[in-house]
Amino acid sequence: MNYTYISGLTLATLIISIYFIKSYKKFSQYQMPFLKAFNPTYDVDRYHADELKKSIMPILSELETSRMANFINLWKKKFENNALTIEDVKFLNEQLVAGNTNQVNGILAIHPKAIEMYNTLNETLNSIEKEAFQEELVEV
Question: Labelling 122: which of 29, 51, 128, 139 has CA 20 to 30 A away?
Answer without folding.
Answer: 139
